[in-house]
Queue: 2 jobs
Job 1
Amino acid sequence: MVYIIALLSVIFLGLAALVVSRMAAVVKNVNGPVDEERIGLSNRINGALFLIFLVFGLVGVVWSFAHASNYFLPEASSPHGRRTDFLFWLSMGIITVAFFITNALLFVFSFRYQYRPGRKASYYPENHKLELIWTVIPAIVMALLVFTGWRAWRDIMSEAPADAQVVELVGKQFNWIARYPGVDDNKLGAYNYKLIDNNNDTGIDFSDPASFDDFTSTTELHIPVNKPVLLKIRARDVLHSVFIPHMRVKMDAVPGMPTRFWFIADKTTDQMRNELGNQDFGYEIACTEVCGRGHFSMRIRLIVEDEESWKKWCAEQKPLLTSYPEYASRIPENLKAKAAKYLPAVETATPSDSTTASTQQGGGVSVATTSLR
Amino acid sequence: MATVAQNTATLAHVEEHEHHEPHSFWRKYIFSEDHKTIAKQYLISGIFWSVVGISLSVMFRLQLGFPDMKLSFLRPILGSWIDETGKLDPDFYLALVTMHGTIMVFFVLTAGLSGTFSNFLIPLQVGARDMASGFLNMLSYWFFFLASVVMFVSLFFETGPAAGGWVVYPPLSALPQAHKGSEAGMTYWLVSMALFIVSQLLGGINYITTVINLRTRGMSFSKLPLTVWAFFLTAVLGLISFPVLLSAALLLIFDRSFGTSFYLSEIFIGGEALPNVGGSPILFQHLFWFLGHPEVYIVLLPALGMTSEIIATNARKPIFGYRAMIASMMGIAFLAFIVWAHHMFVTGMNPFLGSIFMFLTLIIAVPSAVKAFNYITTLWRGNIRFTPAMLFSIGLVSFFISGGLTGLILGNSALDIQLHDTYFVVAHFHLVMGAASAFGLLAGVYHWFPKMFGRMMNDKLGYIHFWLTFIGIYLVFFPMHYIGIAGFPRRYYAFTSYDFTKHIFSDMNSFISVAAIFTFAAQWIFVWNFVYSIFKGRKAPQNPWKSNTLEWTAPINPGHGNWPGEIPAVYRWPYDYSKPGAKDDFIPQNVPYSQTPESNLPHENELIPLEKEIEAQNLNDQFKQPH
């Protein structure tokens, strides 16, 4: 409502200026020469409007900034995020000063040096000292910003620590799939996009023993708190981009070219809930590279928990191989024994009859899927 | 004596010229080779496209500002893109965003701005009869026209126009099964852009050749108006970078239609794994932004050039730091080619490359800062007349500063991680390149309208148009920074899917939409003023703004060849405003120093003996060529 009123007042201001200038023109026409008058009054009005614009603009900027600042940069939950936030506000401070000074000079000069009959402008074509000053000062400020920014960038983009927990995030139209390395070997198995099908939606290659205990999730990504997490990012179909606003994480997902981003989440979901006083709070992952019709709703929840409960949660998840034992047929003979642990006991005996196997295993969902197949 | 004889000869020749080439209507107004007519064709096409382009933005602003609004009233235009419940189709939302970007960047601010004013002003300001090749110039416009037709037709396809964003990143744009907007619409987009690039290259070659070869007697590069410098550098930028976009587009056409894998690798889509391996989507991004970034300056430099001219004229002061202005434009033009990857910090590009591009990007802020300070200093102790053109120029400087400053944040790769592809970016480039260039275009129209049509536009309407637009644009784009800092991603159909965007800023978005509609509405004042003044405007005097440049020495309605008789010679730089001692507050470029002893600076007196030499030169007057 406030906005609409502000807008209306602006319109009326414009209209008022119009009426005033028209009226003045009529009045002036009676006694002044037309040509001189044209430069005279309209010029003064325009000059004054620049000053008015400056004043209202400043008020508007400050007010709207204060009004909107509640929602700026949602609370950062990663150390590198707080570092870039600091740099952001530092740069913001510098450019705000420059913004106010230069715009003020522009409008004040416009007002102050407006046309006056009989006055002559100064012939002031150059001043090398001035030019030098405003080349060097921005250059120094820029160098400062670049240097601090570069150091932050270098640290953020450095190789992930060796003990980083690896999780894979795969983008597709229109959701994210998280793949975990599994509780037994904690290693992501190989993948191949040609192996993708309805159940194996990340294209896990079961000829790699590391993949036997891998499990996936399309609704939640769980990560441990205070531990480096290395996101291995890829895309199945078109470009996507992983965006975790609260972690200050963003990295494109590119088909055919895996990317990565490592970070430390140092506040669990529960801690954030308490800190924000919002029990519904949840971390989220969004997509920021246009990927088609559903681009705006590629949400997956991110749950940060302490390592204990994270491990517990992982242990509860079923490896993909367990959910869909029919993939056992892809396992090379020499590794069958190693995979047996993830397959229902009967499975190894009658690998061809997967329907029976699934039923015995008792997974309702997989029964439905397998019998459909 | 010889000169006089020559003069009469030329005059006779000119008359002969005009006699033996009576142009039919078609040759005069449609397939014209005259740079002034071609400029007007570009201008009117540009105005048409800007109406289309801004209308598209108003449609998607309705969706963003009022997500619950019933848009059924748009069904007569959009047909089945509005569903039964009155909702806009998400695919078409992306098409709107894409076409808005494409149209505004290429068809309005490249063709409409550079096409209009490079064509119109280069020959008139360097003192040439016409462009180096009138025929190529005509071809340039008609290629653009063809590109326009193809692009316009694509708007009406059943599957919609291209919809992968104006950057058309593959694989989305390469795979018709990925997106409705990647079907026929995308094919037409690529064909249209290929034609458009041909048009730009033909135009660019012409601008460069004309500036280098057809300057009049005495018009050395150090006496060129800054407008011409800007057009010249713009044309060089375009000539180097547009071919790269053409190659990017060609490879994309190959990937789409001939089964190649330049940009495609390891893709599983629509239930099947595609055979393509080995390509890289990142390759396209490099090629695209190798044009895409210089394109920003292709759009902006002409606006800055015209602004320099307009500000100096109306402040009645020489532009401050003429040489620094040229140097900074050259610096910007050079750096424009080596900063492209700052659009790609988070694409998975090697972070080391990111560091390099961050350094290079922030260097470009220095010449930009110099330009801004020079504009402000030009106003200092001036005697400013607020013509509509001057108002728009001051507005441009304000946008250039406000939008440029946030570039310092986005150019910093560490900060770009969070802000990349959010509304902060949208706010940044709309101010610094969109609004600033649009203001350059409008300033140019107001300033050179008398030369184009021999009539004046209405000042008062110009003032109102300026204030409503200036305020409106700030109201639209300033709040977008806030939304961006809150993390709102761009190209989102709705903000309802995420907790971090769900319940905040919906009033801000409505406000932005209202402001956008308001600003769009204000543009009709301009359109009306423009059309009305062409036919009914007050007759223009010879030199309405008391300006120094050569175009104002040509007749009010310059005919074929621009100047009857001899082309004026040039003796001084274009910014002798308010020179101490001079009786008037301006001295046009064609006034020799020998006629102004009262105001000459010491070193200028030394130039007086050279005037004879200048007059004796006979540079490239096409009317004097034997044919």
Job 2
Amino acid sequence: MTTVTMTVNGKNVSADVAPNTLLVDFIRNNLRLTGTHVGCDTSQCGACTVHVDGDSIKSCTMLAVQAEGADVTTIEGLAANGDLHPMQASFKENHGLQCGFCTPGMIMSAVDLVKRHPNPSEETIRSELEGNICRCTGYHNIVKSVKAASEKMGG
Amino acid sequence: MPVENGIGAAVRRKEDQRFITGNGNYLDDMNKVGQAYGYFLRSPHAHAKINGINLDAAKAAPGVVDIFTGADMAADGIGGLICGWGITSKDGSPHNAPPHNSMAIDAVRHVGDQVAFVIADSLQQAKDAAELIDVDYAELPPVTDISRALSGGAPQIHEEAPGNVCYDWELGDKDAVDAAFASAAKVSKIDLVNNRLSPNPMEPRAALGEFDPGSEELTLYTTSQNPHVARLIMSAFLAIAPENKLRVVAPDVGGGFGSKIFVYAEETVTVWAARKINRPVKWTADRSEAFMTDAHGRDHVTHAELAMDDEGHILGFRVSTKANLGAYLSTFASAVPTYLYGTLLNGQYKIPSIYVEVLAGFTNTTPVDAYRGAGRPEATYVVERMMETAARDLNMDPTEFRMKNFIQPDAYPYETPVIMTYDSGDYPANMNAAKGLIDYAGFAARKAQSEANGKIRGIGCAAYIEACGIAPSAAVGSLGAGVGLWESAEVRFNPTGSVTVFTGSHSHGQGHETTFAQIIADKLGVPIESVEVVHGDTDKVPFGMGTYGSRSLAVGGSAIVKAVDKIVEKSKKIAAHLMEAAVEDIEHEHGVFSVAGTDKQMTMGEIAFAAYVPHNYPEDLEPGMAENAFYDPLNFTFPAGTHIAEVEIDPNTGVVDIVDWAASDDFGNIVNPMIVEGQVHGGVAQGIGQAMLEGVVYDDESGQLLTGSYMDYCMPRADDLPSFKIDTTGTVCPSNPLGVKGCGEAGAIAAPAALMNAITNALGKDIDMPATPEKVWRAANA
């Protein structure tokens, strides 16, 4: 076992974990933040996407110990003081989700996407979200949600 | 006057708040005190005898609680998994139904077949221990291809199914079809492969079993589309526990698309094992297990022929299909290539005679069952590829050929030669609307422009029909179904005026918490925020047949309407008493009860309160305000429409660019247009996936699954798809009180044929799905 310490959603957390513990398992099992999901075993689906030091990361590709000292944000930490992040609100407003399973990862990727491309075209949005699989929506309303949110986020 | 958030309003979904904040409660998010973890040792072979299983080393491994095999379950009297729909072959014999054990007893028949269940304190310990299990396999030659499996001389998979045949079924009038072909001026023919798909809901299946030794109650938390059906089957056929001692809970479920209808081995083993060890056990599939064990869809090989007169009128239709059912019969597998397929081969057309025969068989592959559309996409693919081929053979515009043969809007009820009675529709209107949306008339100019740019452009349509609102119990019973397909609902007013609706339908993305609340808001005037929709728990909901076949609104919603009707009837009596009027004089609209011809009125909330505080109350009336209803549909519903795809192909790369997509669908009345559009988007995406990207591939020699991860199985991603132009042109469904038809599967049914018609139109030759760049490039450059 090894001790890891990091900041998650603004709180300092520390736990003893097996050295091969994935960041996603640390988040889900140790911290009980179950909004971050696991949808595949090959880092393809993106359901586990979180922000590590401001960048979107598939948390199944990273060991918990690699996030030592990092500042991690999960879907649970995205809303500020009870106010939804514009991306969260936009997914609801534009019916950008159905079953909701891919949604946390999709939103975390989308926030990062808009940070890097403040006024993204449909093509850019589709290309940037290539690493997040949704089986329900056909992406039509996800693209619409991201576009609408980007306008609200001051793009 | 429309009601705020009532029927027809694009209400934003009530359930979204928890999903967008990470507060959904999916199965793997749940944990119980003292929980152990289960892991399945699975067969690495497609076909093998098991000579022995040595568990000694594994049982001694750190953290192991216990390990079970199929022999342990049999010794405990646990029955095998069942197929709930009996199919009769041409010769009158019942379908061959080989045993389907939850864990292998003497043989394994597909890669991933369950061999042992290892339970340990941690998942890692369970996995480590599984590696110490010594299974003595004697490998047998496998067969995965259905044509080879049925061709004679192929490896025999079950002794109960000689020649690997499950059934040899037929429907329609063979003599009439033969006569039609004998008199035909023109015959068109087509050969098609309907590729095998993996459903891939983003949440993998999972189960959590818990036993209470005090009450002797067993609880299974599971990723199910129909928890009551799971309880019924586990109780009645598997002897897991009596129904009154077995609770099945399906919490937030992350997509299903049919694959979570079925009663699978893993859920069965998990709940049984929880009682054996008297400790909660959780099993969660990883994606590799999902590919190996979630029931697959489609996998047909079909030859079809269409007879026409010299003016292009259809005279007869003849279809012969081989259907791959996999290694075992899944829960409803037998019905999919028969009554959900053959009955839809009439499409939207006047076809005087139809004959279909389906030879279904076993292979060393994952079981095949209902996947979004279930039989109806296969039927539409045959019908609409056939219509396109016939039109091309006749040198007619394919949309004109269809218009010439459409059933006309004044022809309902319309009886088809394949035992369906269509109740409503306006197929020409949908066709014309879709053509307008995509500017069909302007295609020739766009094609010329593409050619000038060195590209090949194509356009293709599919005029689909489906049978949804599944289904009238007596009708399906006469066709072999082992269950009734009604739905139940309870509408319970709380004394303070809020409402709890209990429904037997199950939402795993469809938005029932919103749609069903809209019905209550509309009918009873209750603000939508004050309506709670409860589903997915056998201890809470009276009963339920669950969600599949685009049935939730047509059947589940109708049950809610029936319960509401009872609420209104009772409320009128209370209102009459309190307002000192005759019951016949009480009028009701949207939750307001008034005395005709006066300004006296009461709200539903006031009446509900009076029902719970019955100080001044009709003597002969029970207090309280809760009603339940069961609704058995009178007919199937028949959503229909036209989808048109336009593609541009780069002949240098074979890459197909879907440049436009237009759809005009008839779903009857619509409760929430935003949700309906979303359902169409998702269905079309899965249909495009089938046509261009997806396909389960086995190596026929070794029986190994070659598409076992997202690295190998091509899921549609955002950059593979276009945005869609979706429109609805509705005719009211006459058979249910909401006038609705269902919308969940339409896109997946229409899209493959529309897209393949567009691609083959561009190429000028036929290719099979999936139209990968390699296949398209070869066709374009042959």
